[in-house]
Design brief:
Purple Acid Phosphatase, chain A, domain 2, alpha/beta, 6-stranded mixed β-sheet, 16 strands
Length: 324
């Protein structure tokens, strides 16, 4: 199948480079099935078996013959000893994309250093595949407001916001967005999410059709999907675990593993890696997920509080069909 794929690279919002990868743009009405693999929050620098989890995903994506794969952030920090882990990702024979997460810069690294290490074109960029326009956002801009939320930056700054507006305006293809932090979840999601959602909704009104179909995110380590004003917001669960915190810490594997990977005891790991395959046609988005179980005591058995409706604690990614 002949396809047209372009990556639109924006570095610092100042320049645009088009990299042709093949040929064919397909109208929405006659678009053929598009399939991509998606994973999130593997946390190589926390999880003891991150390499094997990633390989499971890569092998499955290769078998599925996906059009591309994408990881949604909190992947790995740019340490030399993580190059072997990165080589697992790069063993996928097709197109690969990265979304930068808040923990990828832990240890004092800059976003520029991380994306250079990964081989990603930029921290935010867009690309076309089989008649769909995909947009990768960087939710780690600093909020200039003195009343900004504490902790990690989770904001889309004016420069990136203007780029997003122009990028959407420049395409007539249906669009899907990727960001690490959610544009819907108010618990540690992107701080100015309502303004970004308004920008997307305005573009749909201006364009005269549902140009923006869906927004995918990771970060929250949950499995959830909802629709707001005609746009789907889909959270992809972590490949590795749910974070519980100090109050619920318990050794899950062994003392040896705990000594080498001391952060695992603060989590509820999933026995099997979680990831999903997404199929898109002219009528729907179909998500094929995976189910696992917790290693050791479950959050419920530890009396961990149940999350809000859009914050479920679960060791799965559900199958879904979202019509548009």
């Amino acid at each position: 199948m002949e396809r047209r794929k372009f990556i639109k690279v924006v570095a610092g919002g100042s320049s645009i480079l088009f990299l042709p990868l093949s040929i064919k743009a397909t109208a929405k009405s006659d678009r053929q099935l598009l399939r991509f693999g998606i994973c999130a929050d593997i946390h190589k620098d926390i999880m003891c078996d991150a390499d094997s989890r990633l390989k499971t995903f890569i092998d499955a994506a290769s078998d599925k013959k996906t059009d591309f794969i994408i990881q949604m952030g909190d992947f790995c920090r740019p340490y030399d000893y993580n190059r072997e882990f990165l080589s697992v990702w790069n063993s996928y024979p097709g197109e690969k994309h990265h979304v930068i997460g808040n923990h990828d810069t832990d240890g004092g690294f800059t976003r520029e250093k991380v994306i250079e290490f990964w081989g990603s074109p930029a921290s935010y960029y867009s690309f076309d595949t089989d008649g769909v326009h995909f947009i990768v956002l960087d939710g780690n801009d600093k909020n200039p407001s003195p009343s900004k939320a504490p902790g990690y930056a989770r904001f889309i700054g004016d420069e990136q916001k203007e780029w997003l507006k122009n990028d959407l305006r420049a395409t007539q293809l249906p669009c899907i967005l990727f960001s690490h932090q959610s544009l819907e979840n108010t618990d540690l999601g992107i701080e100015n999410q309502s303004k970004i959602r308004q920008l997307l909704e305005d573009e749909n009104k201006i364009s005269g059709f549902k140009k923006v179909i869906a927004c995918f995110s990771g970060h929250h380590h949950i499995d959830y999907a909802t629709e707001i004003n005609g746009i789907y917001y889909i959270q992809i669960n972590s490949m590795s675990y749910f974070w519980l915190g100090d109050q619920y810490k318990t050794i899950r594997y062994s003392d040896e593993v705990d000594n080498k990977y001391p952060w695992i005891k603060y989590t509820a790991p999933y026995r099997d890696p979680l990831f999903a395959f997404v199929e898109i046609d002219s009528k729907s988005i179909r998500i094929e997920g995976r189910k696992s179980e917790f290693v050791g005591l479950t959050p419920k058995e530890l009396d961990y509080p149940e999350g809000a409706v859009n914050n479920p604690v679960t060791a799965k990614i559900d199958n879904r069909r979202l019509k548009y």
